[in-house]
């Protein structure tokens, strides 16, 4: 899979972000996207082939693997990366709309089309809320699908067509566990960064509105 488009989106949004937003982009790009492409994808590459049960009953291994891993960790991680980055497109589209509107009317309609204020500020805040919500949803989804943030070495399966309870072994459980913890830690860090940026922008806007009212009263 090519991640060039996602990289370009994150780079584009970086132009309109605050300092906290730029840290978020760096975390997503360096500690999530690059780790996924360079290492994690290879670790889970042959997870089905390396999943072994102590019985050769036709279909048993496939059914057990599907039961314990309904969705591959690595595919869910990829989906998470795409989904949490998508709301950033709202900001890019809004800036493009402003620039297109100015070009259409052939006049200056905004002080700076790329400045995060007014409607663009609302769009930016909505994108932060969506990113935070999606991060939380995926963390809950991971927890529910795999009964916690852990990868056992051994699982016991008694689903048909297995004739009895069989032992199945997961390949490289320790290595996968380390990357799973890394995934959870970076997701939590991104949630903290998004909430920090959201609070900062709301506080900054509130102070700005308060100062405007104060100036009007004095006048």
Automatic annotation (TrEMBL):
<dbReference type="GO" id="GO:0007267">
    <property type="term" value="P:cell-cell signaling"/>
</dbReference>
<protein>
    <recommendedName>
        <fullName>Gap junction protein</fullName>
    </recommendedName>
</protein>
<dbReference type="InterPro" id="IPR013092">
    <property type="entry name" value="Connexin_N"/>
</dbReference>
<keyword id="KW-0812">Transmembrane</keyword>
<comment type="similarity">
    <text>Belongs to the connexin family.</text>
</comment>
<keyword id="KW-1003">Cell membrane</keyword>
<feature type="domain" description="Connexin N-terminal">
    <location>
        <begin position="42"/>
        <end position="75"/>
    </location>
</feature>
<feature type="transmembrane region" description="Helical">
    <location>
        <begin position="77"/>
        <end position="97"/>
    </location>
</feature>
<dbReference type="GO" id="GO:0005922">
    <property type="term" value="C:connexin complex"/>
</dbReference>
<feature type="transmembrane region" description="Helical">
    <location>
        <begin position="21"/>
        <end position="39"/>
    </location>
</feature>
<comment type="function">
    <text>One gap junction consists of a cluster of closely packed pairs of transmembrane channels, the connexons, through which materials of low MW diffuse from one cell to a neighboring cell.</text>
</comment>
<dbReference type="InterPro" id="IPR019570">
    <property type="entry name" value="Connexin_CCC"/>
</dbReference>
<dbReference type="InterPro" id="IPR017990">
    <property type="entry name" value="Connexin_CS"/>
</dbReference>
<keyword id="KW-1133">Transmembrane helix</keyword>
<feature type="transmembrane region" description="Helical">
    <location>
        <begin position="118"/>
        <end position="143"/>
    </location>
</feature>
<dbReference type="GO" id="GO:0005243">
    <property type="term" value="F:gap junction channel activity"/>
</dbReference>
<keyword id="KW-0303">Gap junction</keyword>
<keyword id="KW-0472">Membrane</keyword>
<dbReference type="InterPro" id="IPR000500">
    <property type="entry name" value="Connexin"/>
</dbReference>
<feature type="domain" description="Connexin cysteine-rich">
    <location>
        <begin position="134"/>
        <end position="201"/>
    </location>
</feature>
<dbReference type="InterPro" id="IPR038359">
    <property type="entry name" value="Connexin_N_sf"/>
</dbReference>
<comment type="subunit">
    <text>A connexon is composed of a hexamer of connexins.</text>
</comment>
<feature type="transmembrane region" description="Helical">
    <location>
        <begin position="178"/>
        <end position="203"/>
    </location>
</feature>
<keyword id="KW-0965">Cell junction</keyword>
<dbReference type="Pfam" id="PF00029">
    <property type="entry name" value="Connexin"/>
</dbReference>
């Amino acid at each position: 899979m090519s991640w060039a488009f996602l990289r370009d989106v994150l780079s584009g949004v970086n132009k309109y972000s605050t300092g906290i937003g730029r840290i978020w982009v760096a975390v997503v790009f360096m500690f999530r996207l690059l780790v996924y492409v360079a290492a994690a994808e290879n670790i889970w590459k042959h997870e089905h082939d390396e999943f072994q049960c102590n019985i050769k009953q036709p279909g048993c291994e496939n059914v057990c693997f599907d039961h314990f891993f309904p969705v591959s960790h690595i595919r869910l991680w990829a989906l998470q990366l795409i989904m949490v980055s998508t709301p950033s497109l709202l900001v890019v589209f809004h800036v493009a709309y402003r620039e297109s509107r100015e070009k259409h009317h052939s006049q200056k309609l905004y002080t700076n089309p790329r400045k995060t204020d007014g409607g663009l500020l609302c769009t930016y805040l909505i994108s932060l809320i969506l990113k935070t919500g999606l991060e939380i949803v995926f963390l809950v989804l991971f927890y529910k699908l795999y009964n916690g943030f852990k990868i056992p070495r051994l699982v016991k399966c008694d689903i048909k067509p297995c004739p009895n309870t069989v032992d199945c072994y997961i390949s490289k459980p320790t290595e996968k566990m380390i990357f799973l913890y890394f995934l959870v830690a970076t997701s939590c860090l991104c949630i903290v960064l998004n909430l920090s940026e959201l609070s900062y922008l709301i506080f900054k806007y509130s102070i700005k509105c308060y100062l405007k009212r104060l100036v009007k009263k004095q006048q």
